Amino acid sequence: MEGDLPEDLATIVDASHAATAMGVGRDNGVDLMFHLPGKLSKAICGFAAYEDPPEGFRWSMLQQIGGEPEPKPKQKGFFARRFGNC
Q: How far is 32 from 16, CA to CA, in rounded Å?
């Protein structure tokens, strides 16, 4: 992978380390590092999946193109795998 880390990453990680060092969430069994990806995505995109979307934000529903997905091939039974089709 190439590229630079997001500018806000150091601030978000440092804040989580500081809160962990102060014992925030320790009594409740909260892992503050678990929330780093969500906080980083909010810093980059402006919203997070665990919060209400910003005013005027619209979601787009993704759909498959071309109808139904292809069915998986039917798996052969035990005896057919061992002895072939008799």
A: 6
pLDDT, average across residues 55-79: 76
Q: What is the domain count for the chain?
A: 1
Concatenating the DSSP letter of every residue in 4-63 gives PPPTTHHHHHHHHHHHHHTTTTGGGT--GGGGHHHHHHHHHHS--TTSPPPTT-------
Given a contact cutoff of 8 angstroms between Cβ atoms, the answer to whether 34 and 13 are in contact is no
Tell whether 26 is covered by a domain. yes
Residue 86 domain-assigned (yes or no) = no
- 76 within some domain: no
Give the tens place of pLDDT for each residue, 60-70: 777 767 767 77
Range of the domain at 21: 1-47
Residues 6 or more apart from 50 whose CB is under 8 A from it?
Answer: 38
Which pTM does this prediction carry? Answer: 0.51
